[in-house]
Design goal:
Blueprint (H helix, E strand, L loop, with lengths): L3 H9 L10 H7 L8 H4 L3 E6 L2 E6 L12 E3 L9 E2 L5 E2 L8 E3 L2 E3 L2 E5 L2 E6 L4 E10 L8 E8 L2 E10 L3 E7 L5 E8 L8 E11 L8 E3 L18 E2 L4 E4 L5 E4 L2 E2 L5 E5 L5 E3 L5 E4 L5 E11 L2 E11 L10 E4 L1 H4 L5 H13 L9 E3 L5 E4 L5 E3 L6 H10 L3 E6 L16 H11 L3 E5 L12 H16 L6 E5 L17 E3 L8 H9 L13 E3 L7 E4 L2 E4 L4 H13 L4 E3 L8 H7 L2 H7 L8 E6 L2 E7 L5 E7 L5 E6 H4 L5 E5 L4 E6 L2 E6 L3 E7 L8
Parallel strand pairs: 18-25, 26-27, 26-37, 27-30, 30-31, 31-32, 32-33, 33-34
Antiparallel strand pairs: 1-2, 3-15, 4-9, 5-8, 6-7, 8-15, 9-14, 9-16, 10-13, 10-15, 11-12, 11-14, 17-20, 19-23, 21-24, 22-23, 24-25, 28-29, 35-36, 38-39, 39-40, 40-45, 41-44, 42-43, 42-45
């Protein structure tokens, strides 16, 4: 290793343009440093800009009680505005309220945060430089991985690269003339566990005689996104093009259709055992024999008629051939859910038109459970006096009824779980008419012997078998937060969908971290078994002071719906369906976007390219076209380009904007656009080649 101590002495009497250190010093800046090297790195020079030049400061200056001349500590700003996926930012402390310590070095100042995090700072031209030692706090004990980035006026000016526990880097950036600063911490694409990230000794260097000081800021306001609005009066059929059932078991399907009414429905070549109500569009009954049946659906009204084929697959384990779409009570009502709120959700799903665009499930989460009777049969609590009647109410609208339990003795809220009552509970759910079971790990953590895959699989295999034997088709939603890489074996346990993450929140740092971590999971999902990155954080959700509009900006909401659709994820709402504004309705009823999620080919998207804060994700569609999301994860509008070569296609291709429902033209070998901050442009590339659907 270079004798950095001698090198620092050599530079001590010299001036250097900020941001252009000598090669040897730059080498140290760009090389992760582990515990064994901290003594050497303690002698590094930190170049801080004063005016147009840098004055040499030792690393020790960032560890002192007082800031360097003309500098302020980062934590003196309002760090409560720093968003992060877990916990809250801490001033001069780690997340665990300990003194900041990185790679064995202690710091009296800095900000302790958690990936994924972001802080916006309004500089107003008052700063000339930023500097910080960055790394995971030593409290992580060898765990975690993060990436630190510094952005000025929408341009990345410093990047730590991947850092693991015990590594550190010196980041500094020239901010001369900059108006805005964004400090970002991303996870290392392996989840956010133990990503306790420190901006250690972080300082902002001020311009001499500056009349203002940097201030923590909200992101600048953005123009309302341009998305298609409203529904055509001309009849159209939406939703899945393929559904599954078990022969001899109850079948229910509401034809999702829009158009000026009254509408009338018809169907050709329904399989034996099914019938259609021409006034409601509800297909019901039970398919008598195994097989694949193609029926032609038609809906007609005063403005015309529309037809589309629906494939019905009757056989063993043919449920959820496209990702479930619907509503769940948790993020809006929590433990305050009751039968009336559940009925109201079903009513609103029809009244708002969501059902007409393919949303089907009305799912009760935790909070319905009562005690067991003398025979051990689970009873609902006083808020749900008649579960069978509630299921019938939902079914009468052509919708499906979901319920919740845990493999442990108690649920997450402490109600009765299904431990040692799996077959009995499955039979009860079937008697009530349940169509989906969310099975939440919760207290089973106290039962499991260890974290082996066999132990993680055990309770889900047990309930899957019980559901199979219940006599009713019940979609199985495994909720165990991604432990043991559940996406690799969830289908083998009978799961139709499985949570890949912890619970979500309506903040961009959480939504983006969850969504963009799904890369690589796509090869384990397909028809009948889907990765579930949790619910959509849109509409009015619960908060400490009651219901509040989501904290996601409109573009962030569009980005989530887009990414979830590309991922072929379940589209489950958890907002108050009776209080949805026009934007939320437009967001959730754009059929060209929903068709991406419900595509019958069932091949989820993966990341195809990444550059800076932009990412390109794509999935092939059944008609030969390709759906592509061009995402911008940074805090300023940014150019994003997709190359045909990254998608495995070539030649001139037509491009259509799906959110605007507008053709954009023909492009030779690539497509470039400007994506808004924390936003996306969703396109479809190619021309439909037709299909049996």
């Amino acid at each position: 290793m270079v004798n950095l101590l001698a090198f620092s002495v050599l530079l001590a009497g010299r001036k250097s343009q900020f941001g252009r250190p000598g090669n040897q010093l730059k080498l140290c800046y760009n090389t992760p440093v582990r515990h064994k090297s901290t003594r050497v790195c303690g002698a590094l020079i930190l170049l801080l800009a004063l005016g147009s030049h840098a004055h040499c400061q030792s690393l020790d200056d960032l560890r002192k009680s007082d800031p360097p001349p003309n500098a302020i500590w980062l934590e003196t700003l309002d760090i409560s505005r720093m968003s992060q996926e877990w916990g809250a930012a801490k001033a001069a402390k780690s997340l665990e309220d300990k003194p900041i310590s990185v790679a064995g070095l202690a710091f009296k100042h800095g900000v302790g945060t958690h990936a994924v995090s972001e802080m916006e700072i309004d500089l107003g031209g008052s700063a000339t430089g930023f500097a910080s030692v960055v790394g995971l706090d030593d409290e992580t004990n060898g765990r975690g991985s993060v990436v630190f980035q510094v952005w000025a006026d929408g341009r990345k000016v410093a990047d730590s690269g991947l850092l693991r526990s015990g590594q550190m880097r010196l980041l500094r950036a020239d901010l001369t003339g900059a108006q805005t600063l964004s400090l970002q911490v991303n996870d290392g694409d392996d989840g956010i566990d133990f990503d306790h990230a420190d901006w250690a000794g972080a300082v902002l260097l001020l311009a001499p005689n500056s009349q203002s000081k940097p201030q923590a800021a909200d992101c600048p306001p953005e123009a309302p996104p341009a998305i298609a609005s409203g529904t055509s009066p001309v009849p159209a059929i939406h939703g899945p093009r393929i559904v599954g059932t078990t022969p001899g078991r109850s079948f229910l399907f509401l034809i999702p259709a829009t158009g000026a009414g009254p509408l009338a429905y018809s169907a050709k070549d329904l399989p034996d055992g099914l019938s259609l109500d021409p006034a409601t569009g509800i297909i019901a009954g039970s398919v008598k024999s195994a097989g694949t049946y193609t029926t032609e659906l038609t809906v007609s009204g005063p403005q015309g008629a529309a037809s589309r084929k629906l494939r019905i697959v009757a056989g063993e384990h043919q449920l959820a051939l496209t990702p479930p779409m619907g509503w769940n009570s948790w993020y809006v009502w929590g433990g305050n859910i009751d039968a009336e709120k559940t009925r109201a959700a079903a009513d609103s799903m029809v009244a708002t038109g969501l059902a007409a665009h393919g949303f089907q499930y009305v799912n009760i989460d935790d909070g319905w459970e009562g005690q067991r009777d003398a025979l051990g049969e689970i009873q609902p609590n006083s808020k749900f006096l008649d579960m069978k009647a509630l299921g019938e109410y939902i079914h009468a609208k052509g919708l499906k009824f979901g319920i919740y339990s845990s493999p442990g003795p108690t649920t997450c809220m402490g109600f009765e779980g299904s431990y040692n009552h799996e077959s009995q509970d499955a039979a009860t759910y079937a008697k009530w008419g349940a169509d989906l079971l969310k099975y939440d790990w919760c207290s089973y953590g106290g039962i499991v012997k260890n974290q082996s895959i066999a132990e993680l699989r055990k309770p889900y295999k047990l309930m899957s078998k019980a559901l199979d034997e219940s006599g009713r088709d019940i979609v199985f939603s495994m909720c165990q937060y991604g432990m043991g890489k559940v996406w690799e074996w969830g289908a083998d346990c009978g799961g139709n969908l499985w949570r890949t993450t912890n619970d979500s929140r309506d903040v961009w740092s959480t939504v983006s971290a969850i969504g963009f971590r799904q890369n690589g999971h796509d090869k384990f999902a397909g028809p009948g078994h889907w990765n579930d990155p949790d619910m959509l954080m849109v509409g009015k959700l619960a908060g400490p002071s009651g219901l509040h509009p989501t904290n996601l900006t409109p573009n962030e909401q569009i980005a989530q719906v887009t990414l979830w659709s590309l991922l072929a994820a379940p589209l489950l709402l958890s907002c108050d369906l009776s209080q949805m504004d026009q934007f939320t309705l437009d967001l959730l009823t754009n059929d060209e976007v929903l068709d991406v999620d419900q595509d019958p080919l069932g091949k989820p998207a993966g990341r195809k390219a990444r550059k800076g804060g932009s990412e390109v994700w794509s999935r092939p569609l059944f008609d030969g076209t390709v759906a592509v999301g061009l995402f911008n994860r940074v805090s300023r509008p940014s150019d994003v380009t997709v190359k045909w070569s990254d998608l495995g296609i070539s030649g001139p291709r037509p491009v259509r904007d799906l959110w605007q429902q507008k053709d954009l033209g023909v492009y030779e070998s690539s497509f470039k656009t400007v994506a808004p901050r924390h936003g996306v442009v969703l396109i479809k590339i190619g021309k439909s080649v037709g299909s049996e659907w």
